[in-house]
Amino acid sequence: xxxxxxxxxxxxxxxxxxxxxxxxxxxxxxxxxxxxxxxxxxxxxxxxxxxxxxxxxxxxxxxxxxxxxxxxxxxxxxxxxxxxxxxxxxxxxxxxxxxxxxxxxxxxxxxxxxxxxxxxxxxxxxxxxxxxxxxxxxxxxxxxxxxxxxxxxxxxxxxxxxxxxxxxxxxxxxxxxxxxxxxxxxxxxxxxxxxxxxxxxxxxxxxxxxxxxxxxxx
Amino acid sequence: xxxxxxxxxxxxxxxxxxxxxxxxxxxxxxxxxxxxxxxxxxxxxxxxxxxxxxxxxxxxxxxxxxxxxxxxxxxxxxxxxxxxxxxxxxxxxxxxxxxxxxxxxxxxxxxxxxxxxxxxxxxxxxxxxxxxxxxxxxxxxxxxxxxxxxxxxxxxxxxxxxxxxxxxxxxxxxxxxxxxxxxxxxxxxxxxxxxxxxxxxxx
Lengths: 218, 203
Fold this sequence. Notes:
By secondary structure, chain A is mainly alpha-helical. Helices cover 57% and strands 11% of the residues of chain A. In chain A, strand 1 and strand 2 form a beta hairpin.
């Protein structure tokens, strides 16, 4: 490529032409355009730039369907257990809430945040940000919204909760009649959809977009 | 190979933007407003503190019962291990393996790997840098799966509510266990893998 280590170190390039690895701090030249394959650190293999799909409408469609499924999951009954003919039903939030009722408020708060509040907030913000951009306008407070999305997203644990449902089902199935509710079907669809939504959410591209906006309207 | 710090450049840990350091103070990311730092502040001390906290709580998390189950008037206290044994005795060994891995093995391996990473960084070890960085990434990704037991307890508490006949109540072990998971996740977030590569020179 014709650049030397000295060039990278001694300011021959502008900061916008370089990338620093978050895991080993190695500097490398960034590709001039958003690449259609992911870029990895040559030294430690960390992800430098994700594979970006420029189509905002795909991201918007994924966000909206994930949010709708999430709403169904939170509102519709997830599981019903019948003991001696008396049915007990729970929803997604019901699981966390039950811990609060059983006098474990701290654990309840953690569970509610990781399964309801966190994922819900992230999805709502993603929908808003991508939706407004899709309409060709700039969302107000884009900087703060992106920051919150990046901060909260790692604490969403709906995939782990799905494994929890499987384990709980197997534990209970020998003990009583257990019936899946509509929320469970929505939830089973939601988890793979969330993986797609997360991977297609153009966080990196939005940060770049924000920088361009900041440059033109200070 | 050049590190950003050698070129007096800082990368924002939130949005990834690269900025040139201005003077002694690192400053604020012009793009997202996050405080810029060459390395996560007091990373080694903070990670040790969180790790020690997790290690101490790992004992009550495994020794104290995580839930009490009443079934036809009879109360039993379940620990994490007794849950694994229950599945093993019922022939559900795949599930026993999943629970054992998620609840016992993952937190333990996570703490061991963070301890190993911290020690190797403090001793300025130069071996296996790429491998250690991969180990860090695995540690960071795996941690959340330990929450599965807490979620199972939450679901059982919500569903099994038939009083004298059948009831599940979470116990203190669950609180300790939840704290272990959160503390190890925070410890992984506080550790700065770039320390593995500092003073790397030519590799």
